[in-house]
Structure to design on (263 residues):
């Protein structure tokens, strides 16, 4: 049975995908992931991982795709449900980290690319093998990969369909950190806990500004950033940052938020 389990501590929620060894995405898992993201409470950061060390996620369940093909329906019903889950993650305004162990392929890599940061095991294998099935990544992978590592490198990964190791992925700028497999979840959660204590309003502004830089002409993107900065100027986080600077103290962003939690 495909499940998505949520655990929360110290302002960070970790969502764990589980579906056999491969953690492939079925319609039920896609719906569960969407529901889990929509149910996130007042947290400061999110970590997404796969159960076990064999795979983070190998993408869409091939058995389900074959069933849809044989029924003459095509992949649309599954892909639409997967896309809803991925877009919910991509739209989050808190820092998000993918903790990748083992295989991270196809839709699994598209899921990881929806996160702001990726921590990978040193033995992880990462790639888009869809071309070997005569298909292509359709859940935002071409867009997000090209934005992250450049058009030429994205073309090479997708046209060849070969997976690469974690160190190669880090050299491309696809992965942020590489650690031993046993340390991946701990590293990602430790990073997320540190970020969760940070200035949430500033993080929100940073993510909006980067998205604007990718989606808008340069002049419009700069204007959007200026408007964001003007609106951010009255944030409680700014007041706390300035106070702590003058007092030569570490700013307590998280603890000064109304309704904050330290679960």
């Amino acid at each position: 049975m495909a499940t998505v389990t949520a655990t929360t501590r110290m302002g960070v929620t970790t969502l764990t995908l589980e579906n056999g060894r491969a953690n492939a995405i079925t319609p039920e898992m896609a719906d569960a992931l969407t529901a889990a993201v929509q149910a996130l409470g007042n947290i400061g950061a999110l970590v997404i991982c796969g159960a076990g060390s064999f795979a983070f996620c190998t993408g869409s369940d091939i058995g389900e795709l074959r069933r849809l093909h044989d029924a003459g329906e095509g992949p649309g019903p599954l892909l639409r449900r997967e896309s809803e889950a991925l877009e919910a993650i991509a739209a989050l305004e808190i820092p998000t980290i993918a903790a990748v162990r083992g295989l991270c392929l196809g839709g699994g890599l598209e899921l990881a690319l929806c996160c702001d940061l990726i921590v990978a095991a040193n033995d992880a294998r990462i790639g888009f093998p869809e071309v070997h099935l005569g298909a292509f990544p359709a859940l935002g992978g071409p867009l997000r990969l090209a934005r992250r590592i450049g058009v030429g490198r994205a073309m090479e990964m997708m046209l060849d369909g070969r997976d690469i190791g974690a160190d190669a992925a880090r050299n491309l700028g696809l992965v942020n950190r590489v650690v031993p497999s046993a340390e991946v979840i701990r590293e990602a959660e430790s990073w997320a806990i540190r970020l969760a204590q940070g200035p949430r309003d500033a993080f929100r502004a940073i993510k909006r500004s980067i998205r604007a830089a990718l989606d808008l002409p340069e002049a419009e993107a700069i204007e959007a950033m200026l408007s964001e900065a003007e609106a951010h100027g009255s944030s409680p986080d700014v007041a706390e940052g300035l106070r702590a600077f003058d007092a030569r103290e570490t700013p307590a962003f998280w603890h000064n938020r109304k309704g904050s939690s330290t679960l």
